[in-house]
Amino acid sequence: METTNKIPKLTVVGAGPGDPDLITLKAIKAIASADVILYDALINEELLEYASPNTEIIFVGKRKGCYVYQQEQINELIVNRAKSHGHVVRLKGGDPFVFGRGAEEIDYVKPFGIETYVVPGISSALAVPAYQGIPLTKRGASESFWVITGTTKLHQLSGDVMLAAQSTATVVILMGMSKLAEIVEVFKSQNKLDVPIAIIQNGTTEHEKAGYGTISTICKIVKEKQLANPAIIIIGEVVNKRVVLSSVINGLKDQSTAI
Ligand SMILES: C[S@@+](CC[C@H](N)C(=O)[O-])C[C@H]1O[C@@H](n2cnc3c(N)ncnc32)[C@H](O)[C@@H]1O
């Protein structure tokens, strides 16, 4: 295998939720100094323009529902490229430690003597509701929020959804669209038929779409509006407490009144 004089290192970088301006300065510096970038499907490809022309850029995400690389192959690619090229940047959507496998990749490469770093990112769990004017906490409406994956490693609904449904917290569910009917049943079982719920697809991007309803009505609304992945589900009184935003951010038209 080809080797380099450079120190092999991995930086796991959060690219933010979609709007290319929602990236940190530190993330941009990491991208600019990368010898190799491995990036996922939810990355805004405009961000790759920060890379140097000599950087090798490899897409390792899902295309048309199929993984181009399995996780084991990505792990091996990181190790091999770090040894042969030096600095590998693993660019991930949102924050790499929020349902992003960032920690798994660091755990994998560490025993190979590769230096490891992380650059946190703005998670879609926070930014996507914010761009719709939804505050995850608001005095008098919500004192906390849960961020839960809808689908576990075994493709089942997370048991935490039932625990969260028993609380008064705002509930944010990622990767939950295929389990929406089950999620609705959980909230119905807690007599929360009238609790407000929002579903936001492609949040913070020009393709953003949103649907609003209650636990009783949301499945019909999702069908009518044809909402699909990638989407975030937000459940709680704060959905009705959203603020009206007037700013046009990065060419996005005002979405705050899209009900
Ligand atoms: C594998 S998780 C990665 C989450 C990411 N690490 C983060 O912090 O945002 C992917 C899921 O995040 C949610 N997601 C990510 N970006 C989104 C966006 N721009 N709009 C809506 N949902 C998004 C969707 O639920 C999607 O299925």
Entry keywords:
single chain, about 260 residues, alpha/beta, five-stranded parallel beta sheet, five-stranded mixed beta sheet, 7 helices, 12 strands, disordered C terminus, binds S-adenosylmethionine
Question: Could you explain the architecture of this structure?
Answer:
24% of the residues lie in helices and 22% in strands. It has 7 helices and 12 strands. The protein has a 5-stranded parallel β-sheet, with helices on both faces. Strands 8-9-12-10-11 form a 5-stranded mixed β-sheet, with helices on both faces. Strands 4-5 form a two-stranded antiparallel ribbon. Mean pLDDT is 94; it is low at 253-259. Bound molecules: S-adenosylmethionine (SAM). S-adenosylmethionine binds at residues 17-18, 42, 92-95, 98-100, 123-125, 128, 174-175, 200-205, 229-232. S-adenosylmethionine is lined by residues 17-18, 42, 92-95, 98-100, 123-125, 128, 174-175, 200-205, 229-232.
